[in-house]
Amino acid sequence: MNVVNKPLASLDGKALMMGRPAYTDDFAAPQSLVVKVLRSPHPFARIVSIETDEARAIKGVACVLTHKDFKRISFTRAGQGYPEPSPHDKFVLDEYVRYVGDEVAIVAGVDSSTAEAALAAIKVKYELLTHVLDMETAVGNPSVIHPEPEAREMFPIGFEPKKNIAAAYKMNVGDVDAVLKKCDVVVKQTYRTTAQAHVAMEPHAANARFDHQNRLVIYATTQTPVHVRRIISQALAYPIANIRVIKPRVGGGFGGKQAIAAELIVAAVAIRTGLPCRYAFTRKEVFESSYSRHPMNIEMTLGAMKDGTLKAIDCKVLSDTGAYGEHALTVFMVTGSKVLPLYNKVEAVRFAGTVVYTNHTPAGAYRGYGAIQGNFALESAVDELCAALKCDPLAFRRKNMIREGETSPIFAIMGEGTEGTAMTMETCKLPFCVDRGADLSDWAHNHPRRIVAKNRVRAVGMAIAMQGSGIPLIDMASATVKLNDDGFYNLLVGATDIGQKSDTILAQIAAEALGTTLEKIVVTSSDTDVTPFDTGAYASSTTYVSGNAVLKAATKMKETLVAEAAQVLGTTRDQVAFDGSTFVAETGRLTLKDLSNRLFYNHDQKQLSVTESFCGHKSPPPFMAGFATVEVDLETGEVDLVDYVSVVDCGTTINPKLAQGQVEGGIVQGIGMTLFEEPVYGKADGKTVNSDLLSYKIPTRLEIRKLTTEFAISYEESGPYGAKSVAEIGIDTPPAAIANAIYNAVGVRVRTLPITPEKIWRGMQIRAGKMEESK
Amino acid sequence: MIVNVDVNGRLRSFDVPPGAFLLDVLREAGYLSIRRGCDTTSCGICTVLLDGKPVPSCSYLAIRAEGRKVTTVEGIPEEAAKLARHFGEEGADQCGYCNPSLALAVYALKQTRPKATDEEIRLWLVGNLCRCSGYQSQLVAIKRYLEERP
Ligand code: FES
Ligand code: FES
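Predict the joint structure of the above. Result:
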């Protein structure tokens, strides 16, 4: 391979570093109205009255919109395929507000201070309703968060709004209770995860204008342009053919920009006023009013025999989707479907749970998508089981984990809100990942612990993980390869580059297939008027699903070129050899440059262009083993992460350096979730206490000492040039691996994220008999 | 209120409202490389150089820049391109949203401490957040750039 599997520099990196206009807000039309949103100060209330006359009267205010200005159409912001597996439980604006930060009114003014003044002049009377903040008390609570008759499920997802249930699901294989009874050792624990915030550095933004054809053109920070187009049309009852959504560069997504956010609001203002407008979320709005990760309480029960054979897994989940059911069912299902198959040899496995509404900021898609929550529970519980069995955690995993050529019944049972798809692991290099990770982290020397200084122990802990590569039979991607004169190509893709550099790796795939270099491929991505369909950047789908579409299109273009050359050379296709720049046959030679120019200007003129689509029949999981080396201060409980080793099987790395960036970025986000990220809510008023980057701490350069990342040699037959996905797998292991390392260091098992020094210190006090365990 | 500022070597006068911050004034004037990431002076995305020193323009009153030299990444194209080459080689660039401000901060570091250690680099850039890269590849690329002699 000449282009694929090479660490080439990205296509856009240099221009972005040099500060070229590139992101959504850079493309707002001159003289745009500034849009702002009045947001609810209450977690649950009904708007009794809303007075806007004073605001409308302010000079320079172009519009003030309230729920009275919109048709009552329920929809979901989730940004998924259609019909969505998320309930339609949201209105553009509603007379109910369901969390602190929910939309109350939209204003647009000639500048920021005019819009601010309009916000201040709106008078709202609320009837406060009893809020539900604790997910444990949501089901059957007398306070019903979605009493409205319009809220509905698109197909059965266990939706019972009268009971505050957004979704529910259960499945089992074998008789879990009977198998657990026969086990020598049973471990049963509850693990809790928090509502991590995405914190993409670019806040959500959108701007809108009408163009010279009177079409509505929207630039947006989105991962899903075609879904945005569809949802705007649906929610505003506006003709879809009149909407164009353009995704410029996006400053990070991580799932946070899969849902529709600012787009709908600027569309409404532009339609109402006919004027160009722009809306950029404040950081506070990003924290409070986009969405977060689903916090979950996961009860995990594992049963094993004395010889270390895992026999049964029982997993019960309670998930908090907040005020709206965005991704409620699917995130929760992934907690089972992309976690439990790791131990595929069990006799029985059960998965069940409920996703509840509360009056918190909604939860939604976030890198890891349920798998990180499930992985924390399962891989912590496996180490707890190993401790009970006095079994080496590596030996236990080697014995019980899934291997190449094997399957799990769960793949066929559980899909994305529907049935799944049976598949066998054509590639699974977990044994290598575990062995290599043990070497790189010096397991033999560091496990379980060693004393490195007075009051300081070093220890290593690990976890294994899997993810998927797109949603089989649902996600479709397509690509167009177009020949230009002089023999360079346009590659048009709907695939959505949100900073993961998919434009670059898709160009690498095209260049490889066409036998050319990266410079000859000009990529255009994600403009709904120009690029072919692609569901978007989510579910780890771009490399595998969009990559396969690009490979098909480029391969077909090459065949087409050979056929054209054969005609010119007066021979048959099978007589022509093409190396990407010259066609050679016994009858003569022809350069691609000459062929292209001939096709455009001289003989038998035509445009060569190929469009191909791909929809996967399976979703080959990438796998990894993560090893955390920590040092814990025995006096303070403080943790230093000394090194994080990742050994990853993602098939072929299309671009090894960019793949490493995906893994390491995910690892560090996972470290943040493990050690300090936690939105804090006022218990009484439901307000977020830390909705800014001052008090919500994400990892800085100081906490990240060393990351060691390697890839297994692996080739997935069904992937483009052997590739699987790599975007999400990195985030899954840190919570369990670090929790296991801390346990190995000081014997304290923390089951509630984040793992703060205070929790560790407390655990050490309890162990030393200096403190009582509390509930 | 009129402020006179040297932006990237060109004398500019801006008519600004009294409370305006440098970030908004510069963006309004078309210096689009400077962007916002937060509301609390905590992310570094809005960094510009003021007389050669990195400052967060989001909370710097425009009127205080009177008579001073402001540098945005548009003013150091060669240096930004050099840093970009190392970022490209290391795969240290992802969404790029943090990159222009980082280029300025790293350039300023090169002026003051060209032989900075890893720890000094980390400390110098502690206020420049990046949510994509995981930081390590950036550190390697930044070291390569610092080592590069003109
Ligand atoms: S925008 Fe975050 S520090 Fe200025
Ligand atoms: S590359 Fe995205 S924030 Fe740094």
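DSSP finds five helices and five strands in chain B.
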